[in-house]
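JOB MANIFEST
job_type = single_chain_structure
chain_count = 1
residues = 300
[input]
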Amino acid sequence: MLFKQLKYFTEVIKCGSFTEAAERCFISQSAISQQIRALEESLGVELIKRKNRKFSMTPAGEYFYRHGLVLLDEAERLKRETVRIGSHKEEQLKIGYLRCYGGMEFRQAVAVFSEKYPELELEIVTGNHEELYDLLRFGGVDLILNDQRRAFSEEYENYQLVTSSCYIELSERSALSALTYVTLEDLRKIPCILVASEDQQEREKDHYAKTMGFPDNFLFAVTLEEGRLLAAANKGFLPVEGTSEGASKPEPAIRRIPLCRDGKQIKRNYCAFWKKERTGYYIEEFAEILRQMFLKKQEQ
């Protein structure tokens, strides 16, 4: 059995089409059909039942497909590790993003980048705004996705990604969940849930109270998931970073509502930051892929 035949078979199943699979594998439809038949002949079993222009997997085909995907994944990992060992060095990119970030764009960018550069070791860390800034300043990461809280510095590349609308998440049991939007005045008697590590709680509290104008009544969660659990339990409201109405939907027990001031939804800028002295191909490439993910989301 040829390894390439296994790849052709799994691609046909994933695409649900011989024609599309052939295009993705850069061969003709007749060639990929011949390869699948040759694979079945070498195994001595039928993997696909064909009827007119449609097909379905046999039980043997389903087994072969599931375990074939595992083998292909292991083979790709084997290839990457062999190249890494043979090159006597490990290229690495360290990226940080906000612990309370609720959008899908960052994850999508990581997926696209990892597929495009499988030889690169990608390390991801999370933190609050100041934690990420310190990591970048002292060389702990190469690039960060962060909100803009200070004037741009000439020491850094300040790559603006998006101006995002602000939302809050709160329990559907809250009376405020019936509103189409909320203001900070509406929220003045409700605790604000902030996602922050213990040593960053005072910094986050200071920013939200003094800079953003939030009521000085805070609860803290270590992770976004923990914050959402507190919101679902009707313990307070959760400001959600870098998200939109169509992205990263909250749990069914939670309602996401626009946060407004003076009749307009509050906006925040999100940027990719990195030190100019460390500018390199992979850093710029990841930043551009991330920008494309934000643009794609805005166009939807």
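[summary]
Confidence is low (pLDDT under 50) at residues 244-248.
The domain at 3-87 is CATH 1.10.10.10 (Arc Repressor Mutant, subunit A).
exit_status = 0
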